[in-house]
Write a structure and sequence with these properties.
449 residues, alpha/beta, Aspartate Aminotransferase, domain 1, Aspartate Aminotransferase, domain 2, 2 domains, seven-stranded mixed beta sheet, three-stranded antiparallel beta sheet, 35% helix, binds pyridoxal-5'-phosphate, L-serine-pyruvate transaminase activity, PyrdxlP-dep_Trfase_small, Aminotrans_V_PyrdxlP_BS
Length: 449
Amino acid sequence: MPRQTPPPSEKPPARLSLISRHLAPVYPINTPYTVERLPDTIDTSLLPKTPFRNLSSSSAAPKMSAQPPHPTLLIPGPIEFDDAVLQSMSHFSESHVGPGFVATFGETLSMLRSLFQTTDPSAQPFVLSGSGTLGWDLVAANLIEPADDVLVLGTGYFSDGFADCLRVYGANVTELKAPVGTKPQLPEIEKALAEKRYKAITVTHVDTSTGVLSELKDLSALVHRVAPDTLIIVDGVCSVACEEIAFDAWGLDAVVTASQKAIGCPAGLSISMFSGRAMQAVENRKTPPAAYFASMKNWTPIMKNYEAKKPSYFATPSPQLIHALHTALTQILVNPIADRFAAHKAGSDKIKAAVTAFGLKQVAANPAEQAHGMTAIYLPENVKGADLLPILAKKGVVFAGGIHKEIAAKYIRFGHMGVSLLDPKRPDITHAIKALAEGLAACGYTQGQ
Ligand SMILES: *Cc1c(COP(=O)(O)O)cnc(C)c1O
């Protein structure tokens, strides 16, 4: 379908253009760290005249499921949905304390224990309405008390955000920052832990702004050895369900995540697991938490009751989203979880090999520090994301722009989590790699340039 620039009178109002830039990421998105980056003119030719789901005549969009044809969403979350996950949301309305829904919620919480690989009965899962960011508030409001020292391992945009959130609740934050595209290394972490007694250390398992993967096993072993009282907090928003996380074996204290990334459920749920030790820290607080909705004391009995299939109420959950999460977790747990991690690694290796073959570099330069659910790719010198991303969108592939404040305009992000990578019937990844090659060529890039 040829899209034409509408006459000036039809140009969307400013607010619409802000929203539409999310739909078609033509320009780098604005973040709390960036000033408004409005181009001189918005290229309205890229805005859908009808909702995206009706762009069925867009020749390039591959048909990947029973869903209406649409550009394949290959950003680091939200990701593409499996049909069954999506369909499970169109469930008739139920009481959130009725036996049917209580059973569904209870099973969902129990399945999370398997996803996080914990069998310790003192570990506690939480599923709350909210996005991944709510996990930061849960940690900051409940595990940390004002003036507590927290060591934040700085990997990029998301670790910065976690640090900001901790400060809001009064934490005394020390950020151990690594250069863009890397992570703090064990010897410097050991040194920092030896210098001060920290209540907690936070690590962003995959910093979605750079695609840097932080190794958790050796890190937690180090913390247990040199700072045994320090709680180990993991931001797993972009890693849970695509990178290995062994909650018990590695002795983690909190892993927070969200529904819309590798779990493959619509956005809207904050999902977390806390260790018995973390639950004890909440119990032993000297000061009340400076949060009400995000108070774990309010939610703990509710989560325990749901898991015991007993109705309970603090604030209304979203039955439809819980149904979707139940379906997503059921699918994930059909096969050994290790196979899922291995498949993400194998798929990621192929994508990264293709990126290298195009002559492109990754933001995370060290292969040992590269995430397996996304790839952050530096653009060639003369290619702008603002030119390339719309070309990819026209080919039915939606990638994300840069978000790290130091390099935002210089790279793009390719998300490859969940069904797009795992479902052999979906052409998503092959199509995206082909589109990337063609898009780069259309931008005048020839390999080796
Ligand atoms: C996406 C993301 C978040 C924030 O999650 P929202 O659902 O957008 O609130 C936090 N941390 C990481 C690592 C993420 O990728």
